[in-house]
Design brief:
about 725 residues; alpha+beta; Phosphatase 2c, domain 1; six-stranded mixed beta sheet; five-stranded antiparallel beta sheet; 37 strands; about 35% helix; globular
C-alpha cells in the first residue's frame, strides 16, 4: 500500500554497555527491495559486549540478507519464515563451534512490515504490544523456557494494521521501570516520537540506560496529514546528556530566525529590484563626474605627462617626425603641491571604494557583523534569565547533617532500616551540590558511616600487579585460578597458559595447548594439576610439578561442552545449562568415566545458570541473581542469598560464584555493580567489596584466604586487594 506511512520513535544507547549487547534498529530498503517492506530489530544479549556483539550482528545480517534475497520470490510471510529458518541454522552452527555464552541470554523481537501487513517473531524475554482502540495488548510475551539454538525463532505472529494502530517493541527492563498502565497512557496520548521522549524523561530521572524500545504508528495518508513533531529527534539516546540551555534556546529560536531570514532576504531582493537601476544610473553619473573632474585637474595642473609613444604619434600626425632619440624626454617632476593633492585623492579614492564595496559586493559581510553583535547580546540576556540561582551550599550541608544526626539516633536503638533511609536521604540532598569541595567532604563522611553500618568496603584505586598485554598481543583472558601460591590464566587467542608467581607477580613458566584442539574455554584445579577444557570437547591436564600437558580421555569418547567447570574429591563437574544438567566424571585407572547426571533436573532448574562451585554441596548461580544449593542432586528449599542491604539489594549482573572446602564463605561477583558480595554458606549476607570504577570490565576473581587477598581480573589486568 503505497499510500501508507509509519511514524517511528526509538529509545537507544550510543555506547556499549558493560554487561550486555543491546540494539534497536530499523532497516528500510531502497530500490526494488522496497516493495517487500521494512524490518525492525530489538536485540538484547545479557552477557558482556564481546563476543555478544558478534551474535547480534549475525542475527541482523542473516535476517536482512535472506529476507531480501533475489532468489526468494515468495510473499512477505514466506520470505520472513525462510529468513528465520536460515538464521536458526546460523545460530546452531555458532553453538556447535563453542560460542554458547549467549544461549539462554538471548532476548529478541523482529518484525517485518509491508503495507498494512505485519509479521512478528521473537525469543527470550523480548516484548511486543499493540495499541488499538485505547487498549495495550500483548502480542508477544517472554518465553518461560529457552529454545535450543536451532529453534531460536519458531513462532510467527501475523496480522493487519489499522490506521492509528501503534506497535511497541521493547526489552523487559522497560516494564521494570514504568508500570504498564503508565506506559499505556503515554503510548495512547502521544505520537511515537513524543512518546519516546516522555518515556526517556522517566528513565533518565532513574538513571536507567539499559532500555531499548521502538514505537511504530500506522498512519494512512488519506486520513491524516503526516507531520512529525517539530524539534524532536526520532531517536533518544539514554546515555547521552540532554541538551543544555544554549542548545535548547537555539532549537526554539531556529524557526523564528529562519523565518526572519527569509523575510529579510525577500525584502532585500524586492528593494534591490526596485532600486538597482536607479542606483546604477546614480553611480555611473558620479563616475562620469569624477572622470570629468580628473580631466580638468590634469589640464589645469599638467599632472599627466605624455608617453613617448603618444609624442611620436602626435609628431607623425603633424608631419614633423624626427629621429627616435629626439623624443626621449625625461618626465617632468611634479611639484610638492601636486604630490599632496595626489595623495589626498588616493586616500579619498580608497575610502570611497571600500564604502561602495561594503554596500554592494560585501553587503553580506556587513549583515553578518550586525547579526553576530545582536546574537551575542541576545544570548547574554537569555543566559541571565535562564541561569538558575546559585545553590545555598551551607543550607544544603545543614539539611544533610540534620538527616545524618537523625540516622545516628536511630542506630543507638539498633534501628538500621530507618538509619539507612536517613543516610540515603542525606546523600541525595548532597548530590545536588556534590561538585563543591566542602559538600564532597560531608558526602564522603556520611557515605563512610552508612558503609560501616552495612559492612561495605570500598577499595581504593591501585595499579595492576600483572598486565597480559605486556606478554601477548590482543590477549583474551576470561578466568584466573589461585592454587598453591601461584596464579594461573590462559589467553584464549593462542591457548598460552601462564604460571604467575604470587611472590613477585612475574611469569615463572608458560605452556601452550595446540590451537587445532580448540580454544580454551574453562579450567579448574584438580589434585596437583590444572585441568583446561577447550570448546572442541578436548580436556588437558597441566602437571604442576613438571609443567607438562597431557590430553585426558573419557570412556564416553567426548567431553561435554559446558559453561563452567569445578571439582570435588575424585570427581570433576561440568555445568551445562543448555541441557539443564551438571555432569560428573570420576577418575579411573585408565582415565575418566563417562558423564553421569549429578542433579535431578526435574526438581532443579539450572537452565539459566551462569556459574557454579562445589564444597560437597553444589552452589549454582543464576542469571537473575538467585542461587541454588543442592544436596544429593536436589535443591534445599530454604536456601537463598538474603539480607543484602538496600538500595542495591539485588545481584544485578551475576558473573561468578566461588567457594571450596578451604573457604568458609561464598563470593559472588556482581559485574554490573562492580562489587563482590560475600555470604556465609547458609546464604546470609556478610559484607561486600566495591571495586574502583576505572579498572575496566571485571571478568573473574580468585581468593587466597591465608594471606587475606583477593585477585580481580579486569580487561587484560590482574589487581590485588585486601580482604
Amino acid at each position: 500500500m503505497n499510500n501508507d506511512l509509519y511514524r517511528i520513535g526509538k529509545i537507544a544507547i550510543s555506547q556499549k554497555l558493560p554487561d550486555r549487547f543491546l540494539s534497536v534498529k530499523v532497516y528500510s530498503p531502497k530500490g526494488e527491495e522496497k516493495e517487500h517492506g521494512s524490518l525492525y530489530f530489538l536485540i538484547e544479549i545479557t552477557t558482556p559486549w564481546f563476543p555478544a556483539t558478534e551474535i547480534g550482528k549475525a542475527i541482523e545480517q542473516s535476517i536482512i540478507s535472506n529476507f531480501y534475497s533475489a532468489q526468494n520470490n515468495k510473499n512477505t510471510e514466506a520470505r520472513f519464515e525462510e529468513a528465520l529458518k536460515k538464521t536458526n541454522l546460523v545460530l546452531g552452527e555458532l553453538a556447535k563451534k563453542g560460542d554458547t555464552n549467549w544461549i539462554g541470554n538471548l532476548n529478541v523481537i523482529i518484525a517485518a512490515v509491508a503495507g498494512d501487513e505485519i509479521y512478528i517473531t521473537g525469543t527470550g524475554k523480548g516484548l511486543a504490544f499493540l495499541m488499538r482502540e485505547k487498549s495495550l495488548k500483548n502480542i508477544y510475551q517472554k518465553e518461560k523456557t529457552p529454545h535450543s539454538p536451532i529453534n531460536s525463532f519458531t513462532n510467527i505472529i501475523s496480522g493487519n494494521l489499522e490506521a492509528g494502530d501503534k506497535i511497541v517493541l521493547t526489552n523487559e527492563e522497560l516494564l521494570n521501570q514504568i508500570h504498564r498502565e503508565h506506559l499505556q497512557t503515554i503510548i495512547q496520548s502521544f505520537d511515537p516520537i513524543t512518546a519516546i521522549h516522555e518515556i526517556a524523561k522517566i528513565l533518565r530521572k532513574k538513571k536507567v540506560t539499559n532500555v531499548n524500545s521502538l514505537v511504530l504508528e500506522f498512519v494512512a495518508q488519506d486520513k491524516i496529514v503526516f507531520q512529525p513533531p517539530p524539534d524532536l529527534a526520532d531517536t533518544v539516546f539514554l546515555d547521552r546528556a540532554q541538551d543544555q540551555w544554549i542548545e535548547k534556546t537555539i532549537k526554539k529560536t531556529k524557526p523564528i530566525i529562519a523565518g526572519t531570514q527569509e523575510k529579510i532576504k525577500n525584502g532585500i531582493k524586492g528593494t534591490k529590484e526596485k532600486t538597482a537601476p536607479v542606483f546604477r544610473r546614480f553611480v555611473i553619473s558620479i563616475g562620469k563626474g569624477v572622470l570629468a573632474a580628473g580631466n580638468s585637474i590634469k589640464s589645469i595642473f599638467g599632472g599627466i605627462v605624455k608617453t613617448r609613444r603618444e609624442k611620436v604619434r602626435d609628431k607623425i600626425k603633424t608631419g614633423k617626425a624626427k629621429e627616435w632619440e629626439d623624443f626621449i624626454d625625461k618626465p617632468k617632476q611634479r611639484s610638492f603641491f601636486q604630490i599632496i593633492i595626489n595623495g589626498i585623492g588616493k586616500v579619498f579614492s580608497f575610502l570611497g571604494t571600500q564604502i561602495i564595496l561594503l554596500f554592494t559586493k560585501r553587503r553580506k559581510l556587513l549583515i553578518i557583523i550586525i547579526l553576530t553583535i545582536l546574537l551575542i547580546w541576545g544570548i547574554n540576556i537569555i543566559r541571565k534569565r535562564l541561569s538558575e540561582p546559585r545553590l545555598n551550599v551551607n543550607q544544603i550541608i545543614q539539611e544533610a547533617e540534620a538527616k545524618e544526626s537523625q540516622a545516628k539516633s536511630e542506630l543507638t536503638v539498633n534501628n538500621k532500616d530507618n538509619a539507612r533511609n536517613l543516610f540515603l536521604e542525606a546523600l541525595e540532598i548532597l548530590d545536588q551540590a556534590k561538585g563543591e569541595e566542602k559538600v564532597q567532604d560531608v558526602y564522603n563522611r556520611i557515605q563512610g558511616e552508612k558503609d560501616e553500618m552495612d559492612v561495605i568496603e570500598r577499595w581504593n584505586k591501585t595499579d595492576p600487579i600483572f598486565n597480559f598485554a605486556a606478554h601477548d598481543s590482543n590477549p583474551q583472558v576470561a578466568k584466573i585460578i589461585f592454587y598453591d601460591k601461584n596464579l594461573y590464566a590462559a589467553n584464549k587467542n593462542n591457548n598460552k597458559i601462564y604460571l604467575i608467581s604470587e611472590t613477585d607477580f612475574s611469569v615463572k613458566n608458560t605452556v601452550q595447548i595446540p590451537t587445532e584442539d580448540g580454544q580454551i574455554q574453562m579450567a579448574t584445579p584438580y589434585s596437583n594439576s590444572i585441568l583446561w577444557k577447550t570448546n572442541s570437547k578436548n580436556l588437558y591436564s597441566l602437571n604442576l610439578n613438571s609443567m607438562s600437558l597431557q590430553k585426558e580421555k573419557t570412556s564416553s569418547g567426548d567431553w561435554k561442552n559446558g559453561l563452567d567447570l569445578s571439582y570435588y574429591y575424585r570427581n570433576i563437574y561440568f555445568l551445562v545449562p543448555l541441557e539443564n544438567q551438571i555432569y560428573k566424571y570420576t577418575k579411573t585407572s585408565t582415565g575418566w568415566s563417562e558423564a553421569k547426571d549429578a542433579i535431578d533436573n526435574t526438581k532443579a532448574d539450572i537452565s539459566k545458570a551462569v556459574s557454579f562451585d562445589i564444597d560437597g554441596y553444589i552452589y549454582v548461580l543464576n542469571q537473575d541473581g538467585s542461587c541454588l544449593k543442592l544436596s544429593r542432586g536436589s535443591p534445599l528449599l530454604d536456601f537463598g542469598l538474603k539480607n543484602i542491604p538496600p538500595p542495591a539489594e539485588k545481584i544485578e549482573s551475576p558473573k561468578t560464584i566461588i567457594t571450596s572446602t578451604d573457604l568458609s564463605s561464598l563470593y559472588v561477583l556482581d559485574e554490573g555493580q562492580k562489587r563482590i558480595v560475600e555470604f556465609d554458606k547458609e546464604g546470609n549476607y556478610l559484607r561486600q567489596y566495591i571495586v574502583p570504577d576505572d579498572i575496566g570490565q571485571i571478568k573473574d576473581i580468585a581468593v587466597n584466604i591465608q594471606t587475606q587477598k583477593m585477585y580481580v581480573l579486569a580487561d587484560s589486568f590482574i589487581y590485588q586487594f585486601g580482604l
